[in-house]
Amino acid sequence: MPGAPRPTGDTHGHDRAADACAPPVSARTVAEQLAAVLAECHVLAPTQVSLDDVRGLVLAEDIHSATATPPFDNSAMDGYAVRRADVLLASPTNPITLPVIADLAAGTAENPFIEPGRTARIMTGAPLPDGADAIVPIEGTDQGTEWVTITVAPKEHAHIRRAGEDAHAGDTVLHAGSVLWPTRIAAAASAGTSVVLAHPAPRVAVISTGSELVTPGDSTRRGQIPDSNSFLLAAAVAEAGGIPIRVGAVPDDERTLRELLSSLAETVDAIVLSGGVSVGAYDVVKAVLAPLGTVRFGPVKMQPGKPQGFGRWPMPADSANGSAPDPAGELNDDPSATPGRPARPGPVIFALPGNPVSAYVSFEVFVRPALRRMLGRTDLHRPTITATVDRGWRSPPGRAQYMPVIIDRDGERTLVRPAAAGGSGSHLVAGLGQATGLAIVSESSTQISDGDLVTVMLTS
Ligand SMILES: Nc1nc2c(c(=O)[nH]1)N[C@H]1C(S)=C(S)[C@@H](COP(=O)(O)OP(=O)(O)OC[C@H]3O[C@@H](n4cnc5c(N)ncnc54)[C@H](O)[C@@H]3O)O[C@H]1N2
Ligand code: MOO
C-alpha cells in the first residue's frame, strides 16, 4: 500500500507522526457502522452436517420423509392386541378370558395372525398384528401371559397409532431456512435423515491484546489484571451460535500479533480482537491492521464502544493467478507483482475496544448480528422491550448510550436500573455481571430520569 506506514516488529515502532497527518476518520452512527458490518458479512456456504452437529444451524434444503411416520400401525399402550368384537361386553362383572398366542415387544418383526377369540400381549411401539383392531391396556386385565382376563371393553381402534398419521412418505417435514432446534432435529431424524445441508456455524477466533493481561487465577503484580475479555467474547460467540476459538491474551507486540492473525486466517471465518484500538502509544491492534488498508478504524457515536475497527484480513492471492501472497505486508516488496484474486476471502475482523463493558456492548451491537447473518439467521437482533427507569443516570451528548441494566418486575411495570454502582463506566466488568439487558439511550438524550420510558435490549 503506497504511502502507508510500514508495520514493524517492534512494539512502539509504527509511525505516530504519519498517524497524526492522516485525515481524521469521520465518526459514524451506530446504524452506519452496523450497515457497514452487515454489508461485509455473508451467509456461509452450506455444507453437509451430521445431525450431531446441527443444533442452531439454518437448514439449506427441504427435508422429506423417507417413509411414512409412523412407518407401520403400532400400539400406543402396553397391553393386549384384540379383536374388539371378542371383548365388547367385557366389564368387571363380566370378565372375558382369552388365550395369549404371542408376546410382541417393540422392535419385533413378528406378525402373528390374531384369529377370533385370541389375543397377543403387546408393548408400546410394537407393530399391530394382523387381525387385531384394538388394544386393551394392561390396566384393564389381570396381566396374564398364557391366558388373560379382560375386564374393560376397548373403544373402536383404541390405542392404535396409524401408519402415516404423522407424515406420509415424501412429505416435507422441514423447510429450507428453518433453524434446527432440538425438536426439528428430531423431525429430521424421524424422516430418516442423518446428514443435512446446512449453513455452518462461523468459526471465530477470539484474541485479547494487552501486556497487562494475565490468565485468570494466575498471580498478578502491580499493573496486571486478569484477561476477562477473551472469556466474555468466546462465551458470547458460542451463545450467538458461532464456534469460538479462544486464543487468550497476547502482549502488545506487533510481530506476535501479525503472525498470529496470519496463521489463524486460514481456518476461521471471523476474528474478534479486543484492546489496542484507541489512540494510546501501544495500541497494537490498530498498529498492525490499519496499514493493511482493509480494516477501517474510526469512532462510532456510542458509549461505551466509541473506538471501533472493522474489516477483513487480506488473504494471500491465488498463486495460479500469478500474484504474491503478502498478508503481513512484509514478505514481498516487488512492485511489479501482478495483483491476483485471493483464493478465498479472508476472515472478517472486529477490533473492539479493550474496556470490558465496551467490548461487550460492541459485541452485542455489531458482532452478534454479523455472526447471525453468517449463520443464515434472519432474526439478527435481540428482542427489545420498553421499560420504566427506576433509578436515573446521565448519558453523554451526541452518543447513543448502551447502559447495562438490571430488569425487575413491579406488578404491571418493568423497571430498570444501572447494573453497576458506578453507572456507565466501561471498566465496570464485575457490575456488568448483574446486567440482564442494555438500555438504549438516543444520541440526543443526556439525562435519563426516574419514571422515563427507555428501550431495553434483552440480553439474557
Ligand atoms: N486519549 C484518549 N484515550 C482514550 C480514548 C480517547 O478517545 N482518547 N478512548 C477511551 C475509550 S472510550 C476506550 S473504550 C478505550 C479503548 O482503548 P483500547 O481499545 O485501546 O483498549 P486498551 O487501551 O488496550 O484497554 C482499555 C482498558 O481495558 C482493559 N482491558 C483491555 N483488555 C482487557 C481484557 N482482555 N480483559 C480485561 N480488561 C481489559 C485495559 O487494561 C484498559 O484498562 O480507550 C480510552 N482511552
Ligand atoms: O467508548 Mo469507551 O468504549 O466509553 O469506554
TrEMBL record:
<keyword id="KW-0808">Transferase</keyword>
<dbReference type="InterPro" id="IPR036135">
    <property type="entry name" value="MoeA_linker/N_sf"/>
</dbReference>
<feature type="domain" description="MoaB/Mog">
    <location>
        <begin position="205"/>
        <end position="373"/>
    </location>
</feature>
<dbReference type="Pfam" id="PF03454">
    <property type="entry name" value="MoeA_C"/>
</dbReference>
<comment type="pathway">
    <text>Cofactor biosynthesis; molybdopterin biosynthesis.</text>
</comment>
<keyword id="KW-0500">Molybdenum</keyword>
<dbReference type="GO" id="GO:0005829">
    <property type="term" value="C:cytosol"/>
</dbReference>
<dbReference type="InterPro" id="IPR001453">
    <property type="entry name" value="MoaB/Mog_dom"/>
</dbReference>
<dbReference type="Pfam" id="PF00994">
    <property type="entry name" value="MoCF_biosynth"/>
</dbReference>
<dbReference type="InterPro" id="IPR038987">
    <property type="entry name" value="MoeA-like"/>
</dbReference>
<dbReference type="InterPro" id="IPR005110">
    <property type="entry name" value="MoeA_linker/N"/>
</dbReference>
<keyword id="KW-0501">Molybdenum cofactor biosynthesis</keyword>
<dbReference type="InterPro" id="IPR036425">
    <property type="entry name" value="MoaB/Mog-like_dom_sf"/>
</dbReference>
<dbReference type="InterPro" id="IPR005111">
    <property type="entry name" value="MoeA_C_domain_IV"/>
</dbReference>
<comment type="function">
    <text>Catalyzes the insertion of molybdate into adenylated molybdopterin with the concomitant release of AMP.</text>
</comment>
<dbReference type="GO" id="GO:0006777">
    <property type="term" value="P:Mo-molybdopterin cofactor biosynthetic process"/>
</dbReference>
<keyword id="KW-0460">Magnesium</keyword>
<dbReference type="GO" id="GO:0061599">
    <property type="term" value="F:molybdopterin molybdotransferase activity"/>
</dbReference>
<feature type="region of interest" description="Disordered">
    <location>
        <begin position="305"/>
        <end position="347"/>
    </location>
</feature>
<dbReference type="InterPro" id="IPR036688">
    <property type="entry name" value="MoeA_C_domain_IV_sf"/>
</dbReference>
<dbReference type="Pfam" id="PF03453">
    <property type="entry name" value="MoeA_N"/>
</dbReference>
<comment type="similarity">
    <text>Belongs to the MoeA family.</text>
</comment>
<dbReference type="GO" id="GO:0046872">
    <property type="term" value="F:metal ion binding"/>
</dbReference>
<protein>
    <recommendedName>
        <fullName>Molybdopterin molybdenumtransferase</fullName>
        <ecNumber>2.10.1.1</ecNumber>
    </recommendedName>
</protein>
<keyword id="KW-0479">Metal-binding</keyword>
